[in-house]
Amino acid sequence: MFKVLVSDPISDLGIQQLMDASDVVVEKKTGLSEDELIQIIPDYDALLVRSQTKVTEKIMEAGTNLKVIGRAGVGVDNINLDAATKRGIIVINAPDGNTITTCEHAFAMMMALARHIPQAYAKTIQGTWDRKFLGVELRNKKLGVLGMGRIGSEVAKRAKAFGMDILGYDPFMTEERAEKLGVKLATVDEIVRNADFITVHTPLTPETKHMISRPQFDVMKKGMRIINCARGGVVDEQALVEAIDQGIVAGAAFDVFEQEPPAADHPFLNNPKIIVTPHLGASTVEAQENVAIDVSEQVLHILRNEPFKNAVNMPPVAASVMNKLQPFFELGEKIGAFAAQLNNQAVHEIHVEYAGDLAEVDTQPLTRYIIKGVLSRHFGNDVNIVNSVHLAKVRDIDVVVSQSSASKGFTNRISVTLKTEDGKDRRIAGTLLKEYGARIVRIDKFPVDIAPEGNLIFISHNDKPGIVGSVGTLLGKNDVNIASMQVGRKIIGGEAIMVLTVDKTVSKEVLDELMSLQELNTALQIEFKS
Ligand SMILES: NC(=O)c1ccc[n+]([C@@H]2O[C@H](COP(=O)([O-])OP(=O)(O)OC[C@H]3O[C@@H](n4cnc5c(N)ncnc54)[C@H](O)[C@@H]3O)[C@@H](O)[C@H]2O)c1
Ligand SMILES: O=C(O)[C@H](O)COP(=O)(O)O
């Protein structure tokens, strides 16, 4: 039974499928301190959070059963991603579920800012009929959008309907997409010099921190209004207050702060030109259901060892590519595991060659499975597809990948060579056959045809008459039934291999007995974890 801890307020309806799952127990405990979380986290397989819970390295260290952290929302700045990756904890988010809601909040803030709605409301309910609040129209104004991702693009679309001219800045925005959205691409400098309103929609990164600060306020169009519903820190709070005092900025609307919640004496909280909300951008019934549904779905997949999406600490791969690669994951892991079990030297390089159908696909996720297979011999369950690349790196194992269309007669082919210091490299190649499934087609220099499943015994020997018979007799004597046998050799009387599929695992004593047979050099059991 998997245990899931929900440590922030997350929509009940959204996590219903987790609560209904027969193999999952969900417990909700919100408002916990770091110490309290450290105490209880060892019991849980998954942790579901929003932005309040700070998932620190200490919490992950204590979370020895933790397999996945699900963020019901977009930003993962409250989760120590490096610590998660090192420990093989998958971090997933729900990137699409709150886009529209947050865009609408940014727009509501822009309109409230343009028409002084919060200030006028406050006065009116205090009994003051103050009609001096003079606003501005959005029509014909220039809106600068910094960060033209999901939310920025939606804001731009709505702003067009209000008759605004949009200047967009995003290093990853193409001319073509800008044109499609009716946005004029501009630099930050052009935006601050020309825009009447600026809205920021970037993540907080070293590049975006204080993207709007003193130098930008110094050249800014006078009377500009600024909205931040992205992340505190993208706009320099101190510099903004000064720019308001100097009459450069006419007003600001902020949903997010450099430190949340802000201190009671934060300068935004008593400035009549700044309106604020307590990080409510994603807080609608719809968005909260959406993000919780998305994240619950993926958490279930991860716990059940099924393919999943939206991992934040793994390279993103298009769904179409993932669908193409998915059938190869098990084969790749088995090839890696097979090669690792043949090898008994320190590996300094894992060389992966993809051929045929796999020649022109982004195979990064598949490589992670292969590395996992190789490393699992020594790391067991501590290695997974999230940390396999990291673990190889910290052990100074280079991972070299090559792709080629020459697939030696197979429609697809994966070949894994473990390179060792003594030059005794081990190589396993495999393929996925349409009708027959996964096959191992090469072991070192020997072509073979083996299904990588069940209990295999790998034997290397000198090609001499009678050896196959001796092996069969010895195994029979030890009550080991042989289901199938493959032999491979390059030249008559030379080096040869034998791979037997047997009905049960064999003991070390039986392997030692095999080793004592004349002309036999190696006898190894090869196991595949399901
Ligand atoms: N207030 C809230 O409750 C709330 C809700 C949802 C999202 N957010 C935040 O809003 C922001 C945007 O979310 P999104 O879903 O649109 O993300 P997104 O990833 O779709 O878009 C972010 C965009 O920022 C761009 N970007 C990155 N670095 C940049 C730079 N240096 N200059 C300009 N652009 C840069 C990226 O190219 C990307 O297009 C995030 O910070 C997210 O955490 C806040
Ligand atoms: O990154 C996000 O998704 C937003 O900041 C929303 O955060 P929340 O889930 O804490 O409201």
Automatic annotation (TrEMBL):
The protein's matches in Pfam families, at most eight in alphabetical order, are given as: 2-Hacid_dh (PF00389), 2-Hacid_dh_C (PF02826), ACT (PF01842), PGDH_inter (PF19304)
**Reactions the enzyme catalyzes:** (R)-2-hydroxyglutarate + NAD(+) = 2-oxoglutarate + NADH + H(+); (2R)-3-phosphoglycerate + NAD(+) = 3-phosphooxypyruvate + NADH + H(+)
Per UniProt, residues of the ACT domain are: 456-530
Keyword set, alphabetical order: Amino-acid biosynthesis, NAD, Oxidoreductase, Serine biosynthesis
Pathway(s) annotated for this protein in UniProt: Amino-acid biosynthesis; L-serine biosynthesis; L-serine from 3-phospho-D-glycerate: step 1/3
Q: What are its E.C. numbers? A: 1.1.1.95
Q: Does the keyword NAD apply?
A: yes
The record ties this protein, via InterPro entries, to: ACT-like_dom_sf, ACT_dom, ASB_dom_sf, D-2-hydroxyacid_DH, D-isomer_2_OHA_DH_cat_dom, D-isomer_DH_CS, D-isomer_DH_CS1, D-isomer_DH_NAD-bd
Output the Gene3D superfamilies linked to this UniProt entry.
3.30.70.260, D-3-phosphoglycerate dehydrogenase, domain 3, NAD(P)-binding Rossmann-like Domain
Enumerate the PANTHER family for this protein. D-ISOMER SPECIFIC 2-HYDROXYACID DEHYDROGENASE FAMILY PROTEIN (AFU_ORTHOLOGUE AFUA_6G10090)
Q: Which family does it belong to?
A: Belongs to the D-isomer specific 2-hydroxyacid dehydrogenase family.
Q: Which NCBIfam families match?
A: PGDH
The record's function comment reads: Catalyzes the reversible oxidation of 3-phospho-D-glycerate to 3-phosphonooxypyruvate, the first step of the phosphorylated L-serine biosynthesis pathway. Also catalyzes the reversible oxidation of 2-hydroxyglutarate to 2-oxoglutarate.
What is the protein named? D-3-phosphoglycerate dehydrogenase
Q: Give the organism, scientific name.
A: Paenibacillus woosongensis
